[in-house]
Write a structure and sequence with these properties.
The chain has 3 helices and 5 strands, in the order ααβαββββ. It has 113 residues and is of the alpha+beta class.
Length: 113
């Protein structure tokens, strides 16, 4: 019989043959560490997407139909950071998860939809 070692602490694993960790703490610590090891570029993109999402929601709550691009950028909005694109009523909208906006370059305005 082959002796299996815990993937986290290296202790001998007892129990089922497909068991990889000696206890719940080691299993949880291993998976938490793996989740935390995203490359820095991914962390920055995710933070920016979250920032854009929050700003779009804040502007909508305030009842703002549009925001000047300079003011939006001062608050941390980056118009080139979005998760998808869709066309609705003939307008191309950029999506940040479930929130949409239209960037009108000529007027320098972000319009939330």
């Amino acid at each position: 019989m082959e002796t299996k070692l815990c993937k986290w602490c290296g202790s001998i694993v007892k129990g089922r043959t497909d068991k990889k960790f000696c206890n719940d703490y080691c299993r949880s610590a291993f998976h938490y560490k793996q989740k935390d090891e995203k490359p820095e570029i991914m962390k920055r993109i995710i933070r920016q997407l979250e920032r854009n999402w929050v700003l779009l929601g804040t502007w909508k709550k305030k009842g703002l139909q549009s925001v000047d691009i300079k003011a939006a950028r001062m608050q941390g909005f980056v118009e080139d950071c979005y998760t998808g694109v869709e066309t609705k009523n003939g307008k191309r909208r950029k999506l940040v998860f479930d929130r949409a906006f239209v960037y009108e370059k000529g007027g320098g305005v972000i319009r939330g939809i």
